[in-house]
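Weekly structure sync, notes
Attendees: PL (lead), two postdocs, one rotation student
Agenda item 3: pending single-chain targets
PL asked that the sequence for the first pending target be pasted directly into the notes so everyone works from the same version. It is reproduced below exactly as submitted, 155 residues in total.
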Amino acid sequence: MSAAIENLRAEERLLTFEVAGDLYAIPIAGVLEVAEVRRLTCIPTLATRLGGVINFHGDALPVINCASLFDLDESDLGEPGVILVIGGGTGESARLGIPIDRVLGLVDGAAAAMPGARAVAERRSIQGRVASVLDPERLVSQARNVIESSLGRTD
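Predicted structure, written out during the meeting:
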């Protein structure tokens, strides 16, 4: 199979995962790695309930609590099973870790095409459940906004 066909196939696949019993999907092309859960290091001035950083291959990777990204009740979140490392553009500053309950697998499907600024770009049926389809770039941007607003920055 040619590399172009393989790339096209990867762009038409979504990684599905659960957080607090809800189903999410993200284009596999935006997923850098599924990492082990590690202890978060605090960022001074950032509320620990929002997140922190972990050592990711020698670099600091911001990890943001899903409650602040997906408008979930923090009491519904359990202990994360893994950290999903997302790439939302170019450069190291466009990486983000999100603690999730578990990865379910890959499904066929295109990335969300809906315009907007929210990380949840679309909701659609996947395997008989309603899934929130995420846009990796919007997810990283939304995480950046959460961090900046908690630090009191508005630039």
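Discussion points:
- The chain has a mean pLDDT of 83.
- Residues 68 and 146 are 7 Å apart (CA to CA).
Action: rotation student to compare against the earlier draft before next sync.
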